[in-house]
């Protein structure tokens, strides 16, 4: 039996002349990617018995799409024989063309059957893939995405589906039923994470999409565990579990391999100490050592990354692993290293400055002030006896977004206003925050209090891709977005000593609760955004699932942001 692909290929970091293709193979070997007259080969590296390669093609022509093929040890493995899909393409960036950035977060893999559709809704990543494949068969490629930004919860390590439950049960069969055995319904070890990624990304339609659209990624809490790094006490409590060390090392290590390595340019990867250790044969031991250090010392590694698309800069900001939550009175969303990197990256001299953070920077007003109030209470603003109940409420309601890190929120707000005022270079046409996590989508427009600025500031949220909220949660989030709720929570926060932010904002679109994908189009100084969904008619969706038809994709909302 030959050495084939276990997962991939996935098209990752792309520039005007380079493209990186990631694969996981069934065994050690040499992977070769061929695109036209360009070829790149790489030997696999190994971690915990799994084998990976990243092939970097160079010398590509900006904007010119070219078919590519993959072989392992000289044997063709992609495209698969008899594949019904159009050829996978490499499309280097063309900075002179409009940039179309597809983005979204929170995807639960399903079997797309009627029961799954009724519970989770249509998988918009799959629906988009089917539409793109159909368009390519018809020769239409003009409006294809420049890149896909997956900004959080690419996998759910703590909310697994039935196939993953069955895998864990079989893998752990015969393990002594100790008092503190790993949770039966959560992944813990590297092999389990590897299987979780395989199940999440091996859906044939999604696999083809990832093979042909450049993809950049960021983790959020469910990639590791719900409420990950919410607070110092959360970190202390979770560490009491004997399975936590293998869980966090496996979660961070697998994230580096499956998601983060492909975010890096070939030059950045060559300088990365994790890459060097793996290429030198350090294997699972080196990966575990790195991951444990990244958990224990968040400042030891920077997960955030920056990219250029046309005349615009996109910052992909880690808001999870780099957090400093040791002291409730001095919390930092980013930690010192992350704060410094983001502050240095928030500059003008671009058409648009895009800040992609898994967590929305601007929440509906009621939620924002509730989280700010809760942070103050947990820090002792209303006395020591309320800090414990405040922490309990923080965990129950997931009060852990930017608003719950007021020092960080204020610092980023001030930097953005300096960008808009032209104090950090020529002001961009817009500063746009991208976010996910909250399982509903919306558009918020913001302005500086007390002064005018020509730069548009807005929050664009697209969530979920496939994991819609139950009706009761929808009603709660709708209430949180009402103006009267915002006024009440603002009064509460003021009583706890929270200052009024220098930005004022309001929702001008949404909330929308359908599964969705959004497309941000940047064309010179013009910016526009469009959300797409499968209309929420559950009987129709179930009928489509039974018949095997392509789920309909329709425009949910569209807004011109600048120009």
UniProtKB/TrEMBL annotation:
UniProt domain DUF7800: residue ranges: 4-88
Segments forming domain PhoD-like phosphatase metallophosphatase: 144-465
InterPro entries in the cross-refs: DUF7800 (IPR056702), Metallo-depent_PP-like (IPR029052), PhoD-like_MPP (IPR018946), PhoD-like_sf (IPR038607)
Domain of life: Bacteria
Gene3D superfamilies (UniProt xref): PhoD-like phosphatase
Entries under Pfam families matching the protein: DUF7800, PhoD
Protein's UniProt name: Phosphatase
Organism from which the protein derives: Thermobifida cellulosilytica TB100
Record lineage: Bacteria, Bacillati, Actinomycetota, Actinomycetes, Streptosporangiales
